[in-house]
Give the backbone structure.
Amino acid sequence: TVKYGKIVQEMAIPVGDGTQTIKWLALATSQRFSSQSPHGFLRCREERTTIVGGKNVQILPSNVYSKSRSFYHPENTLVECLEDGDRINVDLVDRMLVDESTGRPRYSAWSFIAFNLSDEKNEERQRLIQQKMSEVDVYRRQNEELHMKQRLEKEGPQIKRMQEIMREQLFDNDKVDESMAIEWD
């Protein structure tokens, strides 16, 4: 799924054996999305939902995530972290924020990790990677807890019924301890 501002679009990207990186997938998605801009004039009734800027526009990806994971490292290969048929979301930058003091673009954490590979940016990049990986752990734990809670809500009545059925068949530990104490004395 590609998200560009208010535009949300499903897109299938064939990846072959999956040896490409997440960064490659994000850039391929961005390129395919930006190439879908219509050529020529818009008619009166056509909606102006396409990107503005002409045919030579390259839109940067700002985040790659899925329902099960809040962050995919740009350098991971597809085969490492995805299965065949998995759906991921690629957010594209619809508006580049600018740092007012320096006039430089402000990248999202994913974009900074993906595109700032110089030695001078390495410390900040490593800090962002650590931060995003801890967010992934928190997100994963929250998903697991939510899944377990939903499962208990769904299967709770069945569990209670099984406990009632098996109650007569289960041993009472206090009675077992008492009878063992009598027999061993």
